[in-house]
Backbone:
């Protein structure tokens, strides 16, 4: 830049000296100097005009041929234009590759802008959501009207507190036989990507599994009842041979265990297939904790010290039976897996995030590697110990589904050899202070 300024100044000095020398020869040096400078200025303005016209014409065709400072500016601009064209071509090629690759995906991809308006989508998304080319610019919620998706999208786009971070599963628009899974991911300020997956096959397989488990469990109830009745009759009659007493006792214990397993399977199947939202019972937390504590003490047989601390008495809106099952499962597990004499603490407290019911024991503890899988069906940290305690392996799976139906979740903290703490976290909207607390 400095070299160009010096060059242009040198050119100006040469023109001024030349015209001055010619002016001295003619006797009118100042007229010659003014004429030379005017010609120089005119030449600069003419080059500027040529350059402005080329810009105004959309930079079509080659840049004008100029000299001096405008020649340098034109050359630099032309080089920048060529570099910009090359970068633009690379960008277009990259976009074409991205579009070609997304077009080959089975998952649908929808790009949103302006707070949820359709910007672009791949063919799979267009097929699953029945989008047409002229739908661009319209809100996606005009085509996917399910209230759960509208709420999910509103939360992910930053309009509210996110209560359900999981993808939404819903019927395809206009085709209830197809099941879609949709998830909104925000980027930038008002932009987002929607990933759409067709999970109809997985949904049907899962439904078949649920129906199979429910039907088999229901069919097992009758023969188990008959077997249990005959065993009870034989044991009570005293007519069975003495060497049969032990086998009959074992058969009776296994029948009770099998009946408990069937009942848990039926309860789990009902929780999975019923509506997501729970009932409208008003369940007193204090009364529920006292009832569960009494049942846990009966199970313990005074082998454990069970304490109850309810800092604030609230009512939870939901299903009374399901809530009792969730609370009781945690308390019973603490009894089963705690050594004799170990303390068990049941506590309820509230804070800005809602209400929290926790059960703390001083039992064997759980290795952190097992915690993510605790709510899986039939998953056992110690299979031998679980069978000895009479567990079915379904208790925490039932707790998980009860919490899902009450918009709640569970956290687990544990140290092997030092005990565990299971906490059920209920959102504020599910809680109501009792009249005495409220006053």
Residues:
């Amino acid at each position: 830049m400095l070299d160009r300024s010096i060059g242009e100044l040198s050119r100006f000095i040469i023109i001024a000296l030349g015209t001055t020398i010619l002016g001295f020869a003619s006797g009118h040096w100042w007229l010659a100097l003014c004429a030379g400078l005017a010609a120089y200025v005119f030449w600069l303005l003419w080059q500027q005009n040529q350059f402005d016209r080329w810009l105004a014409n959309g930079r079509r065709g080659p840049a004008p041929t100029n000299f001096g400072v405008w020649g340098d500016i034109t050359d630099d601009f032309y080089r920048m234009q060529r570099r910009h064209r090359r970068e633009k071509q690379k960008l277009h090629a990259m976009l074409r590759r991205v579009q070609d690759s997304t077009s080959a995906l089975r998952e649908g991809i929808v790009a949103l802008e302006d707070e949820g308006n359709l910007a672009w989508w791949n063919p799979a998304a267009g097929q699953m959501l029945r989008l047409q080319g002229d739908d661009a610019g319209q809100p996606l919620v005009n085509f996917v009207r399910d209230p759960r998706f509208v709420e999910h999208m509103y939360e992910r786009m930053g309009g509210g507190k996110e209560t359900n971070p999981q993808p939404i599963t819903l019927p395809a628009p206009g085709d209830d036989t197809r099941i879609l899974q949709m998830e909104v991911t925000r980027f930038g300020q008002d932009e987002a990507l929607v990933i759409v997956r067709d999970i109809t096959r997985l949904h049907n397989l899962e439904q078949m599994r649920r129906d199979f488990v429910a039907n088999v469990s229901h069919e097992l109830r009758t023969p188990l009842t008959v077997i249990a009745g005959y065993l009870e009759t034989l044991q009570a009659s005293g007519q069975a041979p003495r060497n049969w007493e032990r086998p009959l006792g074992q058969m009776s214990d296994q029948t009770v265990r099998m009946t408990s397993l069937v009942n848990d399977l039926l309860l789990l199947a009902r929780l999975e297939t019923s509506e997501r939202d729970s009932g409208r019972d008003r369940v007193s937390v204090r009364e529920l904790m006292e009832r569960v504590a009494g049942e846990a003490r009966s199970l313990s047989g005074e082998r454990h010290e069970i304490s109850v601390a309810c800092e604030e008495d609230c009512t939870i809106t939901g299903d009374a039976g399901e809530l009792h099952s969730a609370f009781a499962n945690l308390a019973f597990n603490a009894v089963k897996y705690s050594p004799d004499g170990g303390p068990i603490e049941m506590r309820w407290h509230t804070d800005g995030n809602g209400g929290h019911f926790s059960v703390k024991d001083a039992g064997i503890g759980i290795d952190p590697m097992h915690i993510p899988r605790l709510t899986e069906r039939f998953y056992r940290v110690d299979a031998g110990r679980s069978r000895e305690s009479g567990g079915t392996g379904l208790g925490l799976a039932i707790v998980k589904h009860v919490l899902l139906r009450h918009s709640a979740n569970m956290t687990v903290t544990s140290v092997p050899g030092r005990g565990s703490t299971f906490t059920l976290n209920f959102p504020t909207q599910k809680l109501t202070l009792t009249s005495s607390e409220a006053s």
Summary: The two ends are 79 Å apart (CA to CA). The chain has four domains: 2-99, 105-198, 202-273, 281-438. The longest helix spans residues 200-237. The mean pLDDT is 78.
